[in-house]
Design a protein that fits this description.
Layout: E1 4-8, E2 19-20, E3 24-28, E4 39-44, E5 48-54, E6 68-69, E7 74-80, E8 92-96, E9 100-103, E10 107-113, E11 141-143, E12 174-181, E13 190-195, E14 204-209, E15 218-222, E16 228-230, E17 239-246, E18 257-266, E19 273-284, E20 288-289, E21 296-302, E22 305-306, E23 309-310, H1 312-325, E24 328-332, H2 334-337, H3 343-346, E25 347-354, E26 357-364, H4 374-379, E27 385-388, E28 405-407, E29 411-413, E30 416-418, E31 423-427, H5 439-447, E32 454-457, E33 470-474, E34 481-487, H6 488-500, E35 507-508, E36 518-519, H7 520-525, H8 527-551, E37 558-562, E38 565-568, E39 571-574, E40 583-585, E41 588-592, E42 598-599, E43 602-603, H9 604-613, E44 619-623, E45 640-644
Keywords: Calcium, Cytoplasm, Hydrolase
Main location: cytoplasm
Cofactor: Ca(2+)
Amino acid sequence: MAPQRSVRLSLKKPTYAVCVVGVETSVDVHSDVPKGAKTFGVSGSSGVEVFVVYDPARVTVPPDESRWPLAADVEVTLSVDAASKDLNDLKVRGHVSAARGSALPPFSDISLDVDTARRGKVKRSHGDKKTWRWGPEGYGAVLLVNCDRDSVMSRGPDLTDSQLTSLDDLQDMSPMVLSCDGPDRLFDSHKLVLNVPFSDSKRVGVFCARGGNSLEDYKQVLGPQRLSYDVERQRGERKINFFVEGLAFPDADFLGLVSLSVSLVDTGTLPEVPLFTDTVAFRVAPWIMTPNTQPPLELYACSVVDSHGPNKKFLEDMSDLALKANCKLVICPQVENRNDRWIQDEMEFGYTEAPHKAFPVVFDSPRNRGLKHFPYKRILGPDFGYVTREILFAGASSLDSFGNLDVSPPVTVGGKEYPLGRILIGSSFPKSGGRRMTKVVRDFLQAQQVQAPVELYSDWLSVGHVDEFLSFVPTSDQKGFRLLLASPSACLELFQEKKDEGYGEAAQFDGLRHQVNRSINEMLADHRLRNDSLYVQKCIDWNREVLKRELGLSERDIVDIPQLFSLKGSYAEAFFPDMVNMVVLGKYLGIPKPFGPIINGQCCLEEKVRSLLEPLGLHCIFIDDYLFYHELLGEIHCGTNVRRRPFSFKWWHMVP
């Protein structure tokens, strides 16, 4: 149904009204008629459609449909599909038996339009522009948070600038078109006013170029300090282009929806009266994580120097791995990382997308150690956005680092689809108390809506990160991936099997100069190591059931990777390099070298992992990270980061 407004039509004297193209105008023919009049007639000039609406149960249609009864059950509706060129060119004439009167309404084409259809361009719409709907049949425009920095002259993200600093920045904004066709004389006594609700004003900015198309001509007309704008329409101007930017991602206090409206205001009255308002709605695009199953684009690692010297060999291994996977290696130099090697903990790569554009966005964690300036100073740039959340009143815990943040591949759970996967974070569940990721980060992740987070139990680990006991790898079969879980039970079973085969004297850490060898017989006889590992197995099994339930997985979707743990106080640490803490670059896996017992010239742990993963089409590349990472309670995944290709699936097609 088309939108409607009302106007009074006098049948005694000429009456002027403003009517809007595309809006049906209901005419009051009863309020101002000559005394004694019983019937009326109404007609319109070319370009004006006149409809008489009546109740057939109470009103008899006149034979020639020219004289209708002046009854409460009869109404007149006007409609036009083009704007007036002059005040008197489109006419509606009404008459009664006792007198004649005429209304001469100038029709104006006022419409505020955005990319409601989500096709990357603005198209005129007479449909519902006020609401926003999810799903493949949904509608409603999308805003990007303008969180990149297109000009080297800017100090911060573009959203902090009220003045345009680069014409390229317009590409990050969503177009909005104001149609304002009508007689120029109409706007001598009327004006167009663009408005943003106060509650939305700190989350949206609107730019418009008036006077030209140079950088200086673009002005912010709506934003945190500007709630309304009197549109500067030029004589004869039919369309005015605006550019809309998002200023904030969805969060606990912001659902992500904003609206803008334009009103045609009669300036000849006191107070000024809005005659017509058109409103459009936007949803701010979320920040989206990418899982290991997405192809890699860039591999990040840090150059550091410590008591063992520089980590040159590790970086060479990363270079070889990146070359195999056909992705770029980015090395953060020591002068920028300040000897902080844990680049996975500092940041998480994701992206944001609208129908007309997408760009990567780095999420900077609140841990703020040596790498704290790297995401902002070195990654934020043209078409590369930045977002962070700070802890205001307390320091960050280890669980606030982003080694404790992961995302699953797309899954279906009990018929509910998660086409962008589900975010995984470690927490203190099922314990009461303990460490938990800070609320400001959890709230932010939840508010994005498209990757519903799942909390796991990671507080049993010294560092407390989910990447210490799980990883996902891509596969070419119908499932598309496997979940890898660290498994003390699988490791003890493997060692028992090797002992039974007569290899009990083969030693863990054989050939590693900085660690005492432990034979298979010694490890199996070490009751403390066995008990510690069995306790860890119970913790992982608790997570296993949560992951099966929340990700819709079965046992055949899970691969157990042999791994032992030992307790230091009440928290667990990997006994040898933690193989699930790997970097995944497509089918190439950079796995921490476990230095397991050598049997027939082969590390039995490496051999076991190859037998589990290579049939899935994966290539296992074992890399020595012992001195520079494992001894400091981290592994390869902790010391690297990967930017990946965004999903082809469009987030607005899902239903959260």
